[in-house]
Amino acid sequence: MPGSYHRPSRDPVAGPPSEPPVRPAGLPVAEARIYCGGDVTADRAARAGARREGMQLYNTMTERVERFVPREGEVKLYVCGVTPYDTTHVGHAFTFLTFDILVRYLRQQGLAVTYVQNVTDIDDDILRKAEELGIGWQELGARETAKFLRDMDNLNALRPDHYVKATDHVPEMLDIIAALLAKGVAYQVDGSVYFAVDADPEFGKLSHIPRPEMLPIANERGNTPDDPNKRDPLDFVLWQTSAPGEPSWESPYGRGRPGWHVECSAMASRYLGPSIDIHGGGLDLVFPHHECEIAQSENAFDVEPFARFWVHVGMVGYQGEKMSKSLGNLVLVSDALANDHPDALRLYLFSNHYRSNWDYQDAELERWAGVARDLAEAAGFPAYGVEIEVDVSSYRERFFNALDDDLNTPLAIEALREIGAAILEAPEEDDIRDAQLTLRDLADVLGLSLNEG
Ligand SMILES: [Zn+2]
Protein backbone atom coordinates (compact mmCIF):
# COMPACT_ATOMS: atom_id res chain seq x y z
CA MET A 1 0.00 0.00 0.00
CA PRO A 2 2.29 2.77 -1.22
CA GLY A 3 1.94 6.10 0.48
CA SER A 4 0.83 4.81 3.89
CA TYR A 5 2.94 4.99 7.00
CA HIS A 6 3.52 3.01 10.18
CA ARG A 7 1.97 5.72 12.30
CA PRO A 8 -1.69 4.63 12.29
CA SER A 9 -3.00 8.13 12.86
CA ARG A 10 -1.66 9.09 9.44
CA ASP A 11 -3.55 6.31 7.74
CA PRO A 12 -6.26 4.92 9.98
CA VAL A 13 -7.61 2.65 7.22
CA ALA A 14 -4.33 0.86 6.56
CA GLY A 15 -5.28 -2.78 6.18
CA PRO A 16 -3.16 -5.92 6.28
CA PRO A 17 -0.32 -5.99 3.76
CA SER A 18 -0.95 -7.57 0.40
CA GLU A 19 2.52 -9.18 0.35
CA PRO A 20 3.01 -12.15 2.67
CA PRO A 21 4.74 -10.88 5.82
CA VAL A 22 8.35 -11.80 6.45
CA ARG A 23 7.42 -13.02 9.87
CA PRO A 24 3.99 -13.98 11.14
CA ALA A 25 1.99 -11.00 12.38
CA GLY A 26 1.92 -10.76 16.12
CA LEU A 27 5.22 -12.53 16.71
CA PRO A 28 6.63 -10.90 19.84
CA VAL A 29 9.64 -8.68 19.35
CA ALA A 30 11.82 -10.92 21.56
CA GLU A 31 11.28 -13.79 19.16
CA ALA A 32 11.79 -11.54 16.17
CA ARG A 33 15.45 -11.33 17.17
CA ILE A 34 15.78 -15.08 16.67
CA TYR A 35 13.68 -14.92 13.54
CA CYS A 36 15.98 -12.33 11.99
CA GLY A 37 19.06 -14.45 12.74
CA GLY A 38 21.97 -13.64 15.00
CA ASP A 39 24.15 -11.86 12.47
CA VAL A 40 22.10 -8.66 12.52
CA THR A 41 22.80 -8.16 16.20
CA ALA A 42 26.44 -9.21 15.86
CA ASP A 43 26.94 -6.81 12.99
CA ARG A 44 25.44 -3.95 14.94
CA ALA A 45 27.61 -4.78 17.94
CA ALA A 46 30.70 -4.79 15.72
CA ARG A 47 29.76 -1.40 14.27
CA ALA A 48 29.21 -0.04 17.76
CA GLY A 49 32.48 -1.56 19.00
CA ALA A 50 34.52 0.05 16.25
CA ARG A 51 33.34 3.50 17.25
CA ARG A 52 33.83 3.40 21.02
CA GLU A 53 36.56 5.41 22.62
CA GLY A 54 35.44 4.71 26.14
CA MET A 55 33.31 6.32 28.72
CA GLN A 56 34.03 9.69 30.26
CA LEU A 57 32.74 10.51 33.73
CA TYR A 58 32.95 13.62 35.85
CA ASN A 59 35.01 12.92 38.96
CA THR A 60 34.22 15.15 41.94
CA MET A 61 37.70 14.42 43.30
CA THR A 62 39.56 15.90 40.32
CA GLU A 63 36.74 18.26 39.27
CA ARG A 64 37.19 17.07 35.68
CA VAL A 65 35.54 14.80 33.18
CA GLU A 66 37.93 11.85 32.89
CA ARG A 67 38.10 8.68 30.88
CA PHE A 68 36.82 5.76 32.91
CA VAL A 69 39.16 2.82 32.31
CA PRO A 70 37.90 -0.37 33.96
CA ARG A 71 40.34 -2.59 35.82
CA GLU A 72 40.33 -6.11 34.35
CA GLY A 73 36.84 -5.83 32.92
CA GLU A 74 35.36 -5.38 36.37
CA VAL A 75 33.64 -2.44 37.98
CA LYS A 76 33.13 -2.15 41.72
CA LEU A 77 30.37 0.34 42.49
CA TYR A 78 29.17 1.50 45.89
CA VAL A 79 26.20 3.85 46.23
CA CYS A 80 25.04 5.41 49.49
CA GLY A 81 21.43 4.38 49.94
CA VAL A 82 18.49 5.69 51.89
CA THR A 83 18.00 6.29 55.57
CA PRO A 84 14.63 4.59 55.77
CA TYR A 85 12.42 6.92 57.81
CA ASP A 86 10.52 8.67 55.01
CA THR A 87 8.92 7.83 51.71
CA THR A 88 10.76 7.88 48.38
CA HIS A 89 10.45 11.14 46.46
CA VAL A 90 11.49 11.93 42.90
CA GLY A 91 14.81 13.39 44.12
CA HIS A 92 15.70 9.94 45.51
CA ALA A 93 14.56 8.40 42.25
CA PHE A 94 16.82 10.76 40.26
CA THR A 95 19.83 9.67 42.33
CA PHE A 96 19.24 5.93 42.34
CA LEU A 97 18.05 5.69 38.74
CA THR A 98 21.22 7.52 37.63
CA PHE A 99 23.22 4.61 39.02
CA ASP A 100 20.71 2.14 37.59
CA ILE A 101 21.42 3.58 34.13
CA LEU A 102 25.17 3.62 34.78
CA VAL A 103 25.08 -0.07 35.78
CA ARG A 104 22.94 -1.00 32.78
CA TYR A 105 25.27 0.89 30.46
CA LEU A 106 28.49 -0.59 31.87
CA ARG A 107 27.00 -4.09 31.65
CA GLN A 108 25.82 -3.40 28.11
CA GLN A 109 29.49 -2.78 27.29
CA GLY A 110 30.39 -6.22 28.61
CA LEU A 111 31.79 -5.16 31.99
CA ALA A 112 31.15 -7.21 35.12
CA VAL A 113 29.67 -4.73 37.58
CA THR A 114 29.32 -5.50 41.26
CA TYR A 115 26.83 -3.00 42.63
CA VAL A 116 26.49 -2.47 46.38
CA GLN A 117 23.94 -0.16 47.91
CA ASN A 118 23.37 0.25 51.63
CA VAL A 119 20.52 1.07 53.97
CA THR A 120 21.44 3.33 56.87
CA ASP A 121 19.04 1.55 59.21
CA ILE A 122 20.48 3.01 62.43
CA ASP A 123 20.76 6.75 62.57
CA ASP A 124 19.66 9.78 64.64
CA ASP A 125 16.84 10.54 62.17
CA ILE A 126 15.41 7.01 62.39
CA LEU A 127 15.54 6.98 66.18
CA ARG A 128 13.85 10.40 66.37
CA LYS A 129 11.13 9.50 63.86
CA ALA A 130 10.45 6.13 65.52
CA GLU A 131 9.98 7.89 68.85
CA GLU A 132 7.62 10.44 67.27
CA LEU A 133 5.54 7.64 65.77
CA GLY A 134 5.72 5.52 68.92
CA ILE A 135 7.04 2.48 67.06
CA GLY A 136 10.29 0.53 67.22
CA TRP A 137 13.21 1.81 65.13
CA GLN A 138 13.58 -1.62 63.53
CA GLU A 139 9.91 -1.71 62.58
CA LEU A 140 10.14 1.78 61.05
CA GLY A 141 13.32 0.87 59.15
CA ALA A 142 11.90 -2.38 57.80
CA ARG A 143 8.64 -0.75 56.75
CA GLU A 144 10.27 2.20 54.97
CA THR A 145 12.93 0.00 53.32
CA ALA A 146 10.17 -2.23 51.91
CA LYS A 147 8.37 0.86 50.54
CA PHE A 148 11.57 2.16 48.96
CA LEU A 149 12.26 -1.17 47.28
CA ARG A 150 8.69 -1.36 46.00
CA ASP A 151 8.99 2.14 44.50
CA MET A 152 12.30 1.26 42.86
CA ASP A 153 10.88 -2.01 41.50
CA ASN A 154 7.94 -0.08 40.08
CA LEU A 155 10.46 2.20 38.38
CA ASN A 156 12.05 -0.86 36.77
CA ALA A 157 15.32 -0.35 38.67
CA LEU A 158 17.68 -3.32 38.83
CA ARG A 159 18.26 -4.53 42.38
CA PRO A 160 21.87 -4.03 43.56
CA ASP A 161 23.94 -7.22 43.81
CA HIS A 162 24.30 -6.56 47.52
CA TYR A 163 21.63 -4.53 49.28
CA VAL A 164 23.02 -4.30 52.78
CA LYS A 165 21.95 -3.00 56.17
CA ALA A 166 24.29 -1.09 58.46
CA THR A 167 23.17 -3.02 61.55
CA ASP A 168 24.40 -6.28 59.99
CA HIS A 169 27.96 -4.92 59.80
CA VAL A 170 28.86 -3.63 63.26
CA PRO A 171 31.85 -6.04 63.63
CA GLU A 172 33.38 -4.65 60.39
CA MET A 173 32.89 -1.11 61.71
CA LEU A 174 34.62 -2.00 64.98
CA ASP A 175 37.58 -3.40 63.00
CA ILE A 176 37.95 -0.08 61.16
CA ILE A 177 37.68 1.90 64.40
CA ALA A 178 40.38 -0.29 66.01
CA ALA A 179 42.68 0.28 63.02
CA LEU A 180 42.17 4.06 63.18
CA LEU A 181 42.95 4.10 66.93
CA ALA A 182 46.06 1.99 66.32
CA LYS A 183 47.23 4.40 63.64
CA GLY A 184 46.75 7.39 65.96
CA VAL A 185 44.20 9.24 63.83
CA ALA A 186 41.34 8.54 66.26
CA TYR A 187 40.87 8.96 70.02
CA GLN A 188 38.61 7.55 72.68
CA VAL A 189 36.82 9.55 75.40
CA ASP A 190 34.25 8.13 77.84
CA GLY A 191 33.03 5.29 75.65
CA SER A 192 32.97 7.32 72.43
CA VAL A 193 35.57 7.33 69.65
CA TYR A 194 36.26 10.23 67.29
CA PHE A 195 38.28 10.70 64.13
CA ALA A 196 40.80 13.55 64.55
CA VAL A 197 40.53 15.54 61.32
CA ASP A 198 43.76 17.40 62.08
CA ALA A 199 45.62 14.08 61.92
CA ASP A 200 44.72 13.77 58.24
CA PRO A 201 46.31 16.52 56.13
CA GLU A 202 44.28 15.32 53.12
CA PHE A 203 40.91 15.90 54.80
CA GLY A 204 38.98 18.12 52.36
CA LYS A 205 40.50 16.75 49.16
CA LEU A 206 37.14 15.57 47.79
CA SER A 207 34.93 18.54 48.60
CA HIS A 208 37.63 21.20 48.07
CA ILE A 209 36.03 23.19 50.86
CA PRO A 210 38.54 25.45 52.66
CA ARG A 211 39.01 24.38 56.24
CA PRO A 212 37.42 27.51 57.82
CA GLU A 213 34.22 26.93 55.83
CA MET A 214 33.82 23.27 56.77
CA LEU A 215 32.31 23.55 60.23
CA PRO A 216 29.06 25.40 59.40
CA ILE A 217 28.34 22.97 56.55
CA ALA A 218 29.09 19.94 58.72
CA ASN A 219 26.81 21.33 61.43
CA GLU A 220 23.90 21.55 58.99
CA ARG A 221 24.46 17.92 58.10
CA GLY A 222 24.50 16.07 61.38
CA ASN A 223 27.72 17.23 63.08
CA THR A 224 27.53 17.90 66.85
CA PRO A 225 30.08 20.67 67.43
CA ASP A 226 29.22 21.11 71.13
CA ASP A 227 30.07 17.56 72.16
CA PRO A 228 32.45 18.28 75.11
CA ASN A 229 34.45 15.11 74.42
CA LYS A 230 35.72 16.40 71.08
CA ARG A 231 39.16 17.93 70.72
CA ASP A 232 38.05 19.80 67.62
CA PRO A 233 34.38 20.56 66.82
CA LEU A 234 34.94 19.18 63.29
CA ASP A 235 36.13 15.77 64.56
CA PHE A 236 33.53 13.21 63.66
CA VAL A 237 32.12 10.36 65.67
CA LEU A 238 33.11 6.77 64.90
CA TRP A 239 31.46 5.21 67.94
CA GLN A 240 29.14 6.75 70.53
CA THR A 241 27.57 5.72 73.78
CA SER A 242 23.87 5.08 73.30
CA ALA A 243 21.35 7.26 75.11
CA PRO A 244 18.88 5.42 77.37
CA GLY A 245 16.39 3.51 75.26
CA GLU A 246 18.57 3.63 72.14
CA PRO A 247 19.88 0.42 70.57
CA SER A 248 23.42 -0.55 71.52
CA TRP A 249 26.11 -3.09 70.66
CA GLU A 250 29.04 -4.45 72.65
CA SER A 251 32.40 -2.86 71.86
CA PRO A 252 35.86 -2.51 73.45
CA TYR A 253 34.81 1.05 74.39
CA GLY A 254 31.59 0.03 76.10
CA ARG A 255 28.10 -0.52 74.75
CA GLY A 256 27.18 1.96 72.07
CA ARG A 257 26.33 2.48 68.43
CA PRO A 258 28.30 3.45 65.33
CA GLY A 259 28.63 6.88 63.77
CA TRP A 260 27.03 7.31 60.35
CA HIS A 261 30.13 7.70 58.18
CA VAL A 262 31.91 4.56 59.36
CA GLU A 263 28.95 2.45 58.29
CA CYS A 264 29.66 3.03 54.61
CA SER A 265 33.43 2.46 54.89
CA ALA A 266 32.64 -0.88 56.53
CA MET A 267 30.05 -2.04 54.01
CA ALA A 268 32.04 -0.92 50.95
CA SER A 269 35.16 -2.81 52.07
CA ARG A 270 33.19 -5.88 53.16
CA TYR A 271 31.70 -6.45 49.69
CA LEU A 272 34.14 -4.71 47.33
CA GLY A 273 37.50 -4.64 49.12
CA PRO A 274 39.38 -1.56 50.35
CA SER A 275 39.66 0.14 46.95
CA ILE A 276 36.70 0.56 44.62
CA ASP A 277 36.12 1.97 41.14
CA ILE A 278 33.09 4.22 41.50
CA HIS A 279 31.52 5.65 44.63
CA GLY A 280 28.20 7.39 44.15
CA GLY A 281 25.54 9.32 45.97
CA GLY A 282 23.58 12.55 46.05
CA LEU A 283 25.45 15.84 45.80
CA ASP A 284 24.54 16.62 49.43
CA LEU A 285 26.72 13.70 50.57
CA VAL A 286 30.04 15.08 49.26
CA PHE A 287 30.69 16.84 52.53
CA PRO A 288 30.99 15.70 55.17
CA HIS A 289 29.83 12.12 54.54
CA HIS A 290 32.05 11.12 51.63
CA GLU A 291 34.97 13.19 52.83
CA CYS A 292 34.80 11.26 56.13
CA GLU A 293 34.48 7.92 54.34
CA ILE A 294 37.73 8.66 52.48
CA ALA A 295 39.53 9.64 55.69
CA GLN A 296 38.41 6.45 57.42
CA SER A 297 39.00 3.98 54.61
CA GLU A 298 42.35 5.33 53.41
CA ASN A 299 43.74 5.49 56.94
CA ALA A 300 42.30 2.19 58.17
CA PHE A 301 43.34 0.16 55.13
CA ASP A 302 46.44 2.15 54.11
CA VAL A 303 45.11 2.35 50.61
CA GLU A 304 44.77 5.21 48.17
CA PRO A 305 42.49 5.89 46.50
CA PHE A 306 39.52 4.49 48.38
CA ALA A 307 37.48 5.24 45.23
CA ARG A 308 38.89 6.05 41.78
CA PHE A 309 35.78 7.98 40.69
CA TRP A 310 33.35 9.98 42.79
CA VAL A 311 30.05 10.46 41.00
CA HIS A 312 27.44 12.79 42.50
CA VAL A 313 23.88 13.41 41.39
CA GLY A 314 22.24 16.86 41.44
CA MET A 315 19.33 17.87 43.64
CA VAL A 316 15.73 18.05 42.47
CA GLY A 317 13.67 21.01 43.67
CA TYR A 318 9.95 21.63 43.60
CA GLN A 319 8.17 24.99 43.46
CA GLY A 320 11.47 26.78 43.66
CA GLU A 321 12.69 25.12 46.86
CA LYS A 322 14.71 22.07 47.77
CA MET A 323 12.29 19.17 48.26
CA SER A 324 11.83 18.64 51.96
CA LYS A 325 9.35 17.14 54.32
CA SER A 326 9.29 20.27 56.47
CA LEU A 327 8.36 22.51 53.52
CA GLY A 328 5.71 19.99 52.49
CA ASN A 329 6.90 20.10 48.86
CA LEU A 330 7.70 16.45 48.23
CA VAL A 331 6.71 14.74 45.02
CA LEU A 332 6.46 11.08 45.98
CA VAL A 333 7.35 8.40 43.47
CA SER A 334 4.16 6.52 44.36
CA ASP A 335 2.05 9.62 43.55
CA ALA A 336 3.85 10.25 40.25
CA LEU A 337 3.30 6.62 39.25
CA ALA A 338 -0.37 6.63 40.27
CA ASN A 339 -1.30 8.41 37.03
CA ASP A 340 1.66 7.97 34.73
CA HIS A 341 3.79 5.19 33.31
CA PRO A 342 7.22 4.57 34.91
CA ASP A 343 8.77 5.23 31.47
CA ALA A 344 7.26 8.73 31.54
CA LEU A 345 8.90 9.51 34.88
CA ARG A 346 12.24 8.05 33.78
CA LEU A 347 12.16 10.04 30.55
CA TYR A 348 11.31 13.22 32.41
CA LEU A 349 13.96 12.73 35.10
CA PHE A 350 16.68 11.96 32.55
CA SER A 351 15.74 14.74 30.19
CA ASN A 352 17.93 16.46 32.81
CA HIS A 353 21.63 15.70 33.03
CA TYR A 354 22.43 13.81 36.24
CA ARG A 355 24.74 16.54 37.51
CA SER A 356 22.24 19.35 37.14
CA ASN A 357 20.10 20.78 39.92
CA TRP A 358 16.62 21.31 38.52
CA ASP A 359 13.03 21.99 39.46
CA TYR A 360 10.33 19.36 39.00
CA GLN A 361 7.20 20.56 37.10
CA ASP A 362 4.00 18.51 37.14
CA ALA A 363 3.05 19.52 33.59
CA GLU A 364 6.36 18.20 32.25
CA LEU A 365 5.54 14.67 33.42
CA GLU A 366 2.41 14.77 31.25
CA ARG A 367 4.45 15.88 28.27
CA TRP A 368 6.91 13.02 28.72
CA ALA A 369 4.03 10.57 29.12
CA GLY A 370 3.20 11.39 25.49
CA VAL A 371 6.79 10.66 24.45
CA ALA A 372 6.66 7.33 26.34
CA ARG A 373 3.48 6.39 24.46
CA ASP A 374 5.07 7.26 21.10
CA LEU A 375 8.13 5.13 21.85
CA ALA A 376 6.01 2.19 22.99
CA GLU A 377 3.90 2.51 19.85
CA ALA A 378 6.98 2.56 17.62
CA ALA A 379 8.46 -0.47 19.38
CA GLY A 380 5.25 -2.47 19.21
CA PHE A 381 4.00 -1.58 15.77
CA PRO A 382 3.34 -4.66 13.62
CA ALA A 383 6.16 -5.06 11.11
CA TYR A 384 5.11 -6.40 7.73
CA GLY A 385 7.22 -4.45 5.30
CA VAL A 386 9.98 -6.04 3.22
CA GLU A 387 11.17 -3.15 1.06
CA ILE A 388 13.91 -0.79 2.22
CA GLU A 389 15.35 -1.41 5.68
CA VAL A 390 14.86 1.56 7.98
CA ASP A 391 18.46 2.28 8.98
CA VAL A 392 18.84 3.82 12.44
CA SER A 393 22.54 3.03 12.96
CA SER A 394 23.51 6.71 13.07
CA TYR A 395 21.04 7.30 15.93
CA ARG A 396 22.42 4.26 17.71
CA GLU A 397 25.88 5.75 17.46
CA ARG A 398 24.62 9.08 18.75
CA PHE A 399 22.95 7.31 21.65
CA PHE A 400 26.17 5.61 22.76
CA ASN A 401 28.30 8.68 22.14
CA ALA A 402 25.92 10.62 24.39
CA LEU A 403 26.17 8.10 27.24
CA ASP A 404 29.95 7.90 26.80
CA ASP A 405 30.03 11.65 27.34
CA ASP A 406 29.48 11.72 31.11
CA LEU A 407 26.15 9.92 30.84
CA ASN A 408 24.46 12.57 28.74
CA THR A 409 20.95 11.14 28.98
CA PRO A 410 19.16 14.19 27.50
CA LEU A 411 21.01 13.62 24.20
CA ALA A 412 20.56 9.84 24.42
CA ILE A 413 16.81 10.36 24.80
CA GLU A 414 16.81 12.61 21.75
CA ALA A 415 18.47 9.83 19.74
CA LEU A 416 15.84 7.38 21.00
CA ARG A 417 13.04 9.72 19.94
CA GLU A 418 14.59 10.02 16.47
CA ILE A 419 14.51 6.23 16.14
CA GLY A 420 10.86 6.19 17.23
CA ALA A 421 10.05 8.87 14.69
CA ALA A 422 11.96 7.04 11.92
CA ILE A 423 9.88 3.92 12.58
CA LEU A 424 6.54 5.68 12.78
CA GLU A 425 7.18 7.84 9.76
CA ALA A 426 8.55 5.07 7.54
CA PRO A 427 6.33 4.01 4.64
CA GLU A 428 4.44 0.89 5.58
CA GLU A 429 6.17 -1.28 2.99
CA ASP A 430 9.57 -0.60 4.57
CA ASP A 431 11.26 -3.06 6.89
CA ILE A 432 11.27 -1.66 10.46
CA ARG A 433 12.27 -4.81 12.32
CA ASP A 434 15.92 -3.96 12.86
CA ALA A 435 15.00 -0.41 13.86
CA GLN A 436 12.55 -1.78 16.42
CA LEU A 437 15.17 -4.12 17.89
CA THR A 438 17.57 -1.20 18.15
CA LEU A 439 14.89 0.91 19.84
CA ARG A 440 14.21 -1.80 22.43
CA ASP A 441 17.94 -2.46 23.02
CA LEU A 442 18.69 1.19 23.62
CA ALA A 443 15.57 1.85 25.66
CA ASP A 444 16.62 -0.99 27.95
CA VAL A 445 19.91 0.79 28.69
CA LEU A 446 17.82 3.67 30.03
CA GLY A 447 15.60 1.24 31.94
CA LEU A 448 12.56 1.95 29.76
CA SER A 449 10.24 -1.04 29.35
CA LEU A 450 8.32 0.37 26.33
CA ASN A 451 5.21 -1.54 27.31
CA GLU A 452 2.08 0.48 26.93
CA GLY A 453 0.49 -0.73 30.19
ZN1 LIG B 1 27.30 6.44 52.69
List keywords for this structure.
4-stranded antiparallel sheet, binds zinc ion, 2 domains, Rossmann fold, 14 strands, alpha/beta, 453 residues
Protein architecture, described:
This protein has about 450 residues and is of the alpha/beta class. It folds into two domains: about 10-55 and about 340-350 and about 360-445, no CATH class; about 70-320, Rossmann fold, CATH 3.40.50. The protein is built from 15 helices and 14 strands. It has helices at about 30-35, 40-50, 90-110, 125-135, 135-155, 170-185, 210-220, 260-270, 285-300, 335-340, 340-350, 360-380, 395-405, 410-425, 435-445; strands at about 55-60, 65-70, 75-80, 110-120, 160-165, 185-190, 190-195, 235-240, 255-260, 275-280, 305-315, 315-320, 320, 360. It has a five-stranded parallel sheet, sandwiched between helices. β12 (about 315-320) and β13 form a beta hairpin. It starts with about 30 loop residues before the first helix and ends in an 8-residue tail after the last helix. Mean pLDDT is about 90; it is low at about 10-50. The structure holds zinc ion (ZN). The site of zinc ion has 3 residues, from loops.
Order of helices and strands: HHEEEHEHHEHEEHEEHEHEEEHHEHHHH
Predict the CATH topology of the largest domain.
Answer: Rossmann fold
**Count the strands?**
14
**What is the general shape?**
elongated
Sheet of most strands: 5 strands, parallel
Average pLDDT, to the nearest integer?
Answer: 89
Secondary structure category: alpha/beta
- Unreliable runs, pLDDT <50, ≥5 residues? 9-51
CATH top level of the largest domain is Alpha Beta
Ligand set:
zinc ion
Mind telling me the CATH superfamily name of the largest domain? HUPs
- The CATH architecture designation of the largest domain is 3-Layer(aba) Sandwich
Radius of gyration, CA atoms, in whole angstroms = 25 Å
What is the end-to-end distance? 30 Å
Provide the spatial order of strands within the biggest beta sheet.
Answer: 5-4-3-10-11
Tally of distinct domains: 2
Tell me the number of helical segments per DSSP (H or I, 4 or more residues long). 15
Oligomer: single chain
Percent in helix:
40-55%
Strand content: 5-15%
